[in-house]
Structure to design on (183 residues):
């Protein structure tokens, strides 16, 4: 697939199955990630690969976090425990921001987010399916601690990656809706 077609046609795929990416495919995704624009060359990102049985551990962490706030029905417990089983690989994308005289933390989070988009594009270019997810489990202090986040770090997303269970076609919105001339 040529580069522009990849950009125009990328879609998120929620229905994912094994196999996950090969080590070569994953390496390509990370090499794309670290080519994100990065003011000050801070490299304000790090990533956790969660695959295999580690996904069950993540589900238990999700459950612990949600159960800390409220009592959960058995159905809700199952739902939180099974969330990470929706793909063979989950990449936790962490913005790892630093104090910098010229680059505010917000810009560093943007750079880390660009890294995630590069990974989505690299996944799509290789025929993999992927979706960027967040939700309350990306911001919960119990989850952040359990995943080992440090001061200045935040989760910008969970990237679910695997083999697409079905095809999806990219919508093609009317570009004129978003673009105008000024001056
Ligand atoms: C920061 C961020 C967080 C997101 N969180 C979720 C989420 O928790 N659940 C979800 O279904 N989609 C989430 N999305 C949207 C999907 O990743 C995806 O973009 C959307 O389903 C539209 O599909 P498309 O990328 O093919 O246009 C999020 C997107 C971004 C950028």
């Amino acid at each position: 697939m040529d580069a522009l077609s990849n950009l125009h046609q990328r879609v998120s795929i929620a229905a994912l199955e094994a196999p996950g990416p090969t080590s070569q495919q994953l390496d390509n995704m990370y090499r794309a990630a670290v080519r994100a624009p990065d003011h000050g060359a801070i490299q304000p990102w790090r990533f956790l690969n969660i695959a295999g049985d580690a996904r069950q551990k993540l589900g238990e962490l999700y459950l612990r976090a949600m159960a800390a706030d409220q009592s959960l029905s058995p159905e809700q417990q199952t739902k939180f425990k099974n969330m990470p089983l929706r793909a063979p690989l989950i990449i936790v994308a962490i913005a790892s921001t630093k104090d910098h005289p010229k680059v505010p933390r917000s810009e560093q989070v943007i750079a880390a987010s660009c890294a995630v988009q590069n990974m989505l594009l690299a996944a799509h270019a290789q025929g993999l399916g992927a979706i960027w997810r967040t939700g309350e489990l990306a911001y919960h202090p119990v989850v952040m601690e359990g995943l080992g986040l440090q001061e200045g770090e935040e989760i910008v997303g969970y990237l679910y990656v695997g083999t697409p269970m079905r095809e999806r076609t990219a919508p093609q919105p009317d570009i004129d809706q978003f673009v105008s001339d000024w001056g």
The helical segments are 3-9, 23-33, 54-69, 74-82, 105-125, 141-146.
